[in-house]
Amino acid sequence: MSLKTLKDYDILGWRGEFYFKVDGPKVFKARFPNKGTIKLQKNQEFTSRADMSLWSQFKTVKVDDPAIEKLKVILREMDHLKKDETVAEQEFEINLPSKTQYVILQDEKENTKAKLRIQATRTRY
Ligand SMILES: [Ca+2]
Fold first, then answer.
1. What pLDDT, in 10s, does the model give residues 106-121?
2. Distance from residue 20's CA to the centre of ligand 1 (Å)
3. 3-state DSSP assignment of residue 85
4. Can you give the pLDDT at residue 64?
5. Segments forming the whole domain that contains residue 19
6. Where residue 62 sits, what CATH number does that domain have?
7. CA of 22 to the centre of ligand 1 (A)
8. How far is the CA of 52 from the centre of ligand 1 (A)?
């Protein structure tokens, strides 16, 4: 995952404080990072380490039986003076299994863009 913004999100021109929420099937929800925020100033970019995941899930899928998992990813920005703002929100349909793919989550004005890597390859153990 990488996150880049072209905008100043805070009134005082400091930095945006971003976090992700992922809505999985039923009631599961995840936040990334679990605690804290990704702080970005205008034109800064954050790239996560390879071992960081917004969401992980195992699912047993029968061979030759196509399965689709839907995940909603929400990018929010925090402000101490008001409610957290939803910058971007999108539902992704992930075919299981599929090759590793990259998707873009961004706001309407394309100021803030997250590039997400979806890895839904077969796991054997
Ligand atoms: Ca803020």
1. 999 999 999 999 999 8
2. 14
3. strand
4. 82
5. 2-120
6. 2.60.40
7. 20
8. 23
Can you point out the beta strands (E) in the chain? 2-5, 16-23, 29-32, 38-40, 45-47, 67-77, 85-96, 98-106, 112-120
Q: Which two tokens stand for residue 124?
A: 């054997």
CA of 69 to the centre of ligand 1 (A): 32
| pLDDT confidence of residue 123 | 83
pLDDT band at 47 (very low <50, low <70, confident <90, very high): very high
Instruction: Please give the average per-residue pLDDT across 49-71, as a whole number.
Output: 89
Q: Ligand 1 centre from 65 Cα, in Å?
A: 45
Total count of residues recorded for the chain: 125
Domain count, the chain: 1
Is residue 125 domain-resident?
no
- The pTM score is 0.90
How many angstroms is it from 116 CA to the middle of ligand 1? 22
